[in-house]
Design brief:
Length: about 290
Amino acid sequence: MFAHPIVMIDFETSGMSPGQGGRVTEVAAIRIVGNEIVDRFVSLINCGVEIPPFITQLTGITQQMVDGAPSVERVIPKLIEFIGEDYLAAHNASFDEKFLLAEAQQLGLMPRHRGVICSVKLARRLAPGIESYSLGPLAMRLGIRFKGKAHRAEADAEVAAHLLLKLGSDLLGQHALDQVDPELLVQVNHLNAAKVSRFLQAWAEKQKEIQMQERDQLNSSGNKPIRYRHYKGGIYELVCEATQESDLSPIIVYRSHDGSCWTRPKSVFFEMIEVNGKEVQRFVEIKD
């Protein structure tokens, strides 16, 4: 379903903000590949802080549990390595990413994850009209059950991962597509709610068009690479047709003889230009 892996994370913390002295006490990171959970990283974390009584009451995490946990110097580097360059997601992502960046900075580290997906914002835009978008009530409303104690990192991260899978599945079902690029979810997060429906409709139409073109190219080429000659004489191989992230306009991805890849808007790639008083096509397909 998802075109690239997504890692759903959840932190339990000693406070609401790193800027006010809050530190991480537990983390869970769950990797989604395609349409299933394939791997996870879970650990309590010892940051050398006192656990306020209300945090213990909310999460069940005690001072003794944290004091006996692996140090932050051991856990955070392993967490960053686990996430790698995959997309990062969280329910209220600004909160969790803020703590991830703060703890990494204290260790002189820099996470490498791609775009960030907030499942709260995504649910508000893709499933409007629900009474509450807090994780517990939202999961109950959508028929997703907790397997562990709420407000513990692994249970919350797993429920949020299943929420993301459901939102992705509903998105595919509504638009009859094969997969969802996580970058689309990043873009939906940043849209005004009123613009989401039209944006998704335009995106779905572009994706269907690209899928049809790819099938046509595969059938017509007999699995042979399609090559084009530039009007100046260079030979290039078609990699694929894609969609520009900024405005969903179609682009051509092509490869030169030295292996470097280039992109041009589709309208520019096939446009007619004037050369020495004659109109020629910028790129012409080479027929073998």
